[in-house]
């Protein structure tokens, strides 16, 4: 328990430090730019700072909105209510599950434990899979952030390709995993903590919950999720800024303009950066001049479905064979579908 608390404290401390560094860079940016220390720095590092700040500043409002709405759903909407609206038929439940993801702004940071709870309460495994891959993309906040991130002629292509693929592919992935696992038990033992963040939250319908306690829990959850997602955003934005500044432009252009290589590179990049789906569009848009629309769509679809941080959560909550099959399925389906959508494979 002490080790777990130590790890939680370390992660929270990292988030605070990173946010503090960002605030210093943001609030003191004018003075820093005029200072002798900055003027002596190479132009490349000044460019890193400029790109980094622009990505984070654009993304933070959407993260704040997302964590607050997500927290309200976490506290006030019961899993039983969600389950009651799903059809009993295995195949008939796939489409409603994808549609349900379109109205619940849960990012990939929070969706894994939520799906685990739903499966424990009787939701079929394959329906949980659809919800797992659809919810982080198919919601109004991600739609809005993607729209504002690509304010050019790219907007319609990338926005609707992202949303359309997410809806269709979530159903396909759910159907494939149903064919492999049916409704077999794929959760790990019951000794795993249900809540990732460590706070106790009242569940909807809990008679002991008062209005003020629910408000307090909503605030706790929102702050907790903001710090968790904020540090990933800052790290991702910094890596993106470094990537754009220091990578040889000739290499970047050669990779980015080839359909196959650019798509694979951006999918790997999405997996490693582990960005929140409410903010990843701003990072993707910063690569718009070097990479094809196809690879940007792959980045925006693949990252929310599967990334480094939710891989650890998947292995913690689900059996290893299920997670490996899930990862392989998502990777192949996303890559092949983007190729087909943009006419590379016909």
Automatic annotation (TrEMBL):
Pfam families noted in UniProt = ArsP_1 (PF03773)
What is the residue range of the signal peptide feature? none
Q: Which UniProt keywords apply?
A: Cell membrane, Membrane, Transmembrane, Transmembrane helix
The family annotation for this protein states:
Belongs to the UPF0718 family.
> Which InterPro entries does the record associate with it?
DUF318, UPF0718
User: What are the TM regions of this chain, as residue ranges?
Assistant: 12-29, 49-77, 89-115, 127-150, 162-181, 226-247, 322-345
Q: Where in the cell is it found?
A: Cell membrane
Asked if the keyword Membrane belongs to this entry, the reply reads yes
Superkingdom of the source? Answer: Bacteria
Question: Where is it mostly found?
Answer: membrane
Can you say what this protein is called?
A: Permease
Its record classes its membrane topology as: Multi-pass membrane protein
Keyword Ribosomal protein in the entry? The reply is no
């Amino acid at each position: 328990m002490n080790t777990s608390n130590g790890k939680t404290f370390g992660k929270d401390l990292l988030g605070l430090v990173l946010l503090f560094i960002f605030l210093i860079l943001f609030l003191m940016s004018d003075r820093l730019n005029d200072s002798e220390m900055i003027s002596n720095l190479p132009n490349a590092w000044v460019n890193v700072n400029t790109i980094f700040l622009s990505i984070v500043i654009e993304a933070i409002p959407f993260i704040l909105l997302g964590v607050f709405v997500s927290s309200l759903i976490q506290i006030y909407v019961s899993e039983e209510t969600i389950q009651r609206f799903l059809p009993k038929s295995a195949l008939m439940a796939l489409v409603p599950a994808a549609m349900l993801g379109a109205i619940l702004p849960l990012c990939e940071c929070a969706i894994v434990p939520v799906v685990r709870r739903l499966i424990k309460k009787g939701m079929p495994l394959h329906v949980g899979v659809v919800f797992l891959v659809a919810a982080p993309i198919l919601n109004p906040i991600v739609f809005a952030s993607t729209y504002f991130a690509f304010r050019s002629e790219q907007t319609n292509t990338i926005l609707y390709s992202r949303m359309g693929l997410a809806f269709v592919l979530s159903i396909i992935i759910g159907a494939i995993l149903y064919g492999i696992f049916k409704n077999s038990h794929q959760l790990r033992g019951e000794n795993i903590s249900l809540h990732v963040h460590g706070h106790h939250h009242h569940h909807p319908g809990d008679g002991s919950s008062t209005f003020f306690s629910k408000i307090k829990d909503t605030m706790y959850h929102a702050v907790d999720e903001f710090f968790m997602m904020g540090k990933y955003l800052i790290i991702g934005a910094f890596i993106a800024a470094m990537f754009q500044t220091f990578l040889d432009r000739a290499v970047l252009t050669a990779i980015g303009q080839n359909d196959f290589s650019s798509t694979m590179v951006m999918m790997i990049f999405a997996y490693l950066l582990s960005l929140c789906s409410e903010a990843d569009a701003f990072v993707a848009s910063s690569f718009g001049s070097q990479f094809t629309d196809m690879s940007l769509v792959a980045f925006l679809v693949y990252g929310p479905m599967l990334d480094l941080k939710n891989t650890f959560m998947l292995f913690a909550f689900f059996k290893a064979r299920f997670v490996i099959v899930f990862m392989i399925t998502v990777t192949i389906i996303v890559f092949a579908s983007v190729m087909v959508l943009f006419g590379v494979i016909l």
